Amino acid sequence: MSKSNQKTKSGSSARKEEQISFAELFAALLAFTASVPDALLRRIRSIGAQSHALLLEHRAGRFPESDRRIVQLFLLIPGLFPMWKSLVREWFSRRRHLRLRFDTAVAARTTHQNRLRPLAFVAVALLFACIAAFFSIYTPATTVVYKGEPLEIVRDSAEAKRIAARVERFTSETLGSSFKLDEDSLQYTTSLVRRSDLGEVKRLEKELTDEIGLVTYGYSLYIDDELVGSTQYEGALEALIDQIKEIGVSADTLSVDFVEDVRIVPGYVPTDSLKNLGEIAEKINSTKVGEETYTVVKGDTWGKIAYEHDMTNAQLLEMNPGYDIDRINIGDELVLSREVPYLTVKVTERQNYVDEVNYDIEYVDDSTMYQGDTRVIEKGAYGTADIVADVVYVNGVETERTVLSQVMLSAPKTETRARGTKERPSWMPTGSFRWPASGRITSGFGYRNTGIRGASTNHMGIDIACSYGSPIYAADGGTVEYTGYKGAMGYTVIINHGNGYKTYYEHCSSFTCSAGQHVYRGQQIARVGSSGVASGSHCHFGIQKNGTYVNPMNYLS
């Protein structure tokens, strides 16, 4: 056999081998395509149709574009064809020089191989493009199922188990007791899923917590570290607090704050502790156990303090057991209430107003008047000023006023008064009243029901319980107007103080003064008894002001 025939035969055999390997490659590609799911095939066909349309646009010179990666890939491939074509031509040009050195059969074989290699490269590139497209759409992931209910899809089971452990931990912390998930109720299923179906870790945590139902992510309101209530609605407590603040807001308001420390804390709370906003608002507007106190100042009496705070003497004593109502000292702290509001609203306002300016008083000595007596010679007049002040209100009550500026509109006029220098007799009234006897108050001023026949239900004074025969003193200087027996009042002393006031001392056992006598403040005028209608030894003490009985507790000092 000739050399040329042998060469021809070997070239034919090589081409056959090249054809078989390309057929095998194409068959492998078809086998891969057959194994692809129908949904993916429909997707690939759709991509193919779109790619064809884009190629037509490209050939027409309209430069198609897309933001989708898979489309950009198919636009890239035909865009590379001119480069590949140039590379092939350059390669063929170099091979032409080689043909001069090799025989015709070898050159033909080489040319055929070179024609097949670009096709193989394109086929492999398409195969990798399909694989890349598949895994850009699908990914392995884990579906979390709780008691047969699919919850969320996450990247892997380890991540899902970390979330389950976290749910167990904060549920135990919130409930204050150990909590474990039932292993049979929680399953993890791994499969290929669309990347778009992957869920968020936070969402899995919330869904699993909601399915368990023992704790809920909520918002808790604390006032001075005391939990008032919790709600699951974000922003609801802030809106409620703002509504409370707005009640005290006006055009002049500078600021609205709370005296207490108010905090809203997010976090998991027991589900059964959640309250609706109405319940929380009702609690905030109510009171809680606490103490409101009052410090005794100069001039205070037990009755005065009780009266100014809308209480009876007995109610104030009930709040302050152990005190002697006849003897309280400056600086004593008396409890006025066992309940205080949950929230104390402090409002600061800037006020601009016109107010009176006090006038000064000048005194001129007058030897015809008693010491302590005064008489107006020339009446003074208030001035007016334009004032700017910051005023602080606590729960609607003014507690502080700071004057920032004061512009005088009209000057005040000084008042001139005569002041007595003549020595005052001991029996002249001082204008204030001392306690007539030492003892415990058994009946206050006003309505009462003693159950004693003949006793008045409208009590016009106070009853001071004392032992029989104890001394009774004049509450202030004056002239004894009456001593004698007055029916239910028993033996009674009446002193006219000459300044519109009269004092009554009833149920006496005997007198140490007589009608028409001048008596000084603190002078003994009688002895304690139980004459008239009385349940025991005591001194009934009453005060009349311009003919009307008044509560003695407001005048005693």
Main sheet makeup: 10 strands, antiparallel
| Mean pLDDT score | 79
Uncertain residue ranges: 1-20
Output the structural class. Answer: alpha+beta
User: Number of DSSP helices?
Assistant: 10
Gap between N and C termini? 151 Å
- What percent of residues are in strands? 25-35%
How many domains comprise the coordinates? Answer: 5
| Count of β-strands | 27
**C-alpha geometry:** elongated
**Rg, Cα atoms, Å:** 52 Å
Helical percentage: 25-40%
Task: Briefly say what this structure is.
The chain has helices at 3-35, 38-59, 69-99, 104-137, 157-175, 201-212, 236-247, 277-284, 302-308, 313-319, and strands spanning 138-146, 149-154, 186-194, 215-223, 226-231, 253-258, 262-270, 287-295, 333-341, 345-357, 361-370, 374-378, 383-394, 397-410, 415-422, 440-443, 446-447, 458-459, 462-465, 471-473, 478-485, 491-496, 501-511, 518-519, 524-528, 538-545, 548-550. It is of the alpha+beta class.
Written account of the structure:
The protein is α+β, with helices and mostly antiparallel strands and 557 residues long. It folds into 5 domains: 3-138, no CATH class; 218-286, no CATH class; 289-341, Membrane-bound Lytic Murein Transglycosylase D, Chain A, CATH 3.10.350.10; 346-422, Single Sheet (Resuscitation-promoting factor rpfb fold), CATH 2.20.230.10; 440-554, Glucose Permease (Domain IIA), CATH 2.70.70. Helix content is 33%, strand content 34%. It has 10 helices and 27 strands. The chain has helices at residues 3-35, 38-59, 69-99, 104-137, 157-175, 201-212, 236-247, 277-284, 302-308, 313-319; strands at residues 138-146, 149-154, 186-194, 215-223, 226-231, 253-258, 262-270, 287-295, 333-341, 345-357, 361-370, 374-378, 383-394, 397-410, 415-422, 440-443, 446-447, 458-459, 462-465, 471-473, 478-485, 491-496, 501-511, 518-519, 524-528, 538-545, 548-550. The strands form 7 sheets. Strands 16, 19, 20, 21, 22, 23, 24, 25, 26 and 27 form a 10-stranded antiparallel beta sheet that branches. A hairpin with a 2-residue loop joins strand 4 and strand 5. Helix 1 (3-35) runs parallel beside helix 4 (104-137) and helix 5 crosses helix 6. The chain is elongated and about 160 Å long. It starts with a helix and ends in a 7-residue tail after the last strand.
